[in-house]
Amino acid sequence: MTATLIDGTAFAATVREKVAAHVARLKEVQGVTPGLAVVLVGDDPASEVYVRSKGKQTVGVGMNSYEHRLPAETSETELLDLIARLNADKDVHGILVQLPLPSHLDESLVINAIDPAKDVDGFHISNVGRLGTGQKAMVPCTPLGCLMMLRDQLGNLSGLNAVVIGRSNIVGKPMAQLLLGDSCTVTIAHSRTKDLPDVARRADILVAAVGRPNFVQGDWIKPGATVIDVGINRIPAPEKGEGKTRLVGDVDFVAAREVAGAITPVPGGVGPMTIACLLANTLTACCRAHGFAEPEGLTA
Ligand SMILES: Nc1nc(=O)c2c([nH]1)NC[C@@H]1CN(c3ccc(C(=O)N[C@@H](CCC(=O)O)C(=O)O)cc3)C=[N+]21
Fold first, then answer.
1. Which helix H or strand E contains 273, and what residues bound it?
2. Is 96 in the pocket of ligand 1 (CB under 6 A)?
3. Which of 251, 248, 246, 297 is nearest to 276 (CA)?
4. Is residue 50 within 8 Å of residue 80, measured between CB atoms?
5. Which of 274, 275, 282 for mutating ligand 1's site (highest number of atoms within 8 Å of CB)?
6. Which one-letter DSSP state was computed for residue 167?
7. Is 214 helix (H, G, I), strand (E, B) or coil?
8. Which of the four CATH numbers 2.60.40.10, 3.40.50.720, 3.30.1300.10, 3.40.190.10 does domain 141-271 have?
9. Do domains 31-115 and 141-271 have the same CATH topology?
10. How remote is the CA of residue 274 from the centroid of ligand 1, in Å?
């Protein structure tokens, strides 16, 4: 059996359509336009690409996009001043500080300076705590996108065995919380997990977020399982020509698709959903700020 492909690019387009329709209504009925501020410190070329793509998609769904590009040598005080201004700005409903920050800046300090209501990444300590205690939170975009794809694919997740490989604050831990929220039996596995292939083989839902190319092998997968590949790894691709590269996930896709029931590809899986969920979160933040009804199907 060959697995169903979960088309993240197509799914992200439907999420953006929902967001755009809701934004159009907000503008017409309430006279409010959601706004997203993206802050990029330094000039990492990969970050440049994401920030440009986010800006374009933000405008594409009818929202306002505010980009702040600061030099790599920006001081912590300068960055905190900008965040304070964005926190106070009524036209800004979402704030994203692109990570990683240059090493002289304290990431937790900076993230926790964002107004939690505007923290569309869901990285603020208050949102982390809210998610963990089942209170209304801003939910990190990548896990939210994964949850949307899983619900779409499987319907009800209740009682399923979910194994998350990876324990990062931005993917593994919040993903586990969301799966628990949907009543899965959740295991968080990682590099020190004993008998990892056996643990993975118990999963009805397997989420791979380890950041190692082709780490998860085909024989780690339970036949029929749903596999979500969060990895985005750039590896050399000499077959495309000298010095060329290609993107691969954390899962050996060719082997896994022969075993899994459904699987996300890389590229075209989780990545596009991450940006779509950023737009969804910005809309949600705007609705909450104004006391408007929240968009349906776009939150956890
Ligand atoms: N505060 C913060 N929040 C983030 O959400 C955040 C961040 N910092 N720093 C960088 C990472 C990376 N990230 C991606 C988003 C979309 C794709 C994406 O759409 N990828 C395409 C491929 C793009 C390509 O071809 O390079 C895909 O998977 O199909 C990838 C990576 C968000 N990040």
1. helix 270-290
2. yes
3. 297
4. no
5. 274
6. -
7. coil
8. 3.40.50.720
9. yes
10. 7
* Catalytic center residues: 54, 98, 121
The three-state DSSP-derived secondary structure of 11-52 is: HHHHHHHHHHHHHHHHHHHHCCCCEEEEEEECCCHHHHHHHH
Domain ranges in the chain are 31-115, 141-271
Q: How far is the CA of 184 from the centre of ligand 1 (A)?
A: 27
CATH architecture, domain defined by 31-115: 3-Layer(aba) Sandwich (3.40)
Q: Indicate whether residue 249 lines ligand 1 (CB < 6 A).
A: no
Matching residue, tokens 């077959």: 239
Q: Does the C-beta of 271 come closer than 6 Å to ligand 1?
A: yes
Residue 263 assigned as binding residue: no
State the Cα angle at 5 between 234 and 256, rounded to 5°.
Answer: 65
Q: What is the pLDDT of residues 118-146, one digit of tens each?
A: 999 999 999 999 999 999 999 999 999 99
Q: How far is CA 191 from CA 88, 114, 212, in A?
A: 42, 32, 11
Which two three-digit tokens encode residue 8?
Answer: 């993240």
Residue type, 122: G
Residue 193 neighbours by CB under 8 Å, 6+ apart? 165, 199
Q: ipTM for the complex?
A: 0.97
Question: Token digits for 119?
Answer: 């923290």
Which residue in the block uniquely carries the two structure tokens 């780490």?
Answer: 215
What backbone phi and psi angles, to 5 degrees, belong to 166?
125, 135
Q: Is the C-beta atom of 272 inside 6 A of ligand 1? A: yes
**pTM tops 0.90:** yes
pLDDT in tens, 243-289: 999 999 999 999 999 999 999 999 999 999 999 999 999 999 999 99
Q: Residue 292 Cα, ligand 1 centroid: separation in angstroms? A: 29
94-97 and 262-263 beta bridge pairing? unpaired
What pLDDT, on a 0 to 100 scale, did the predictor assign at position 43?
A: 87
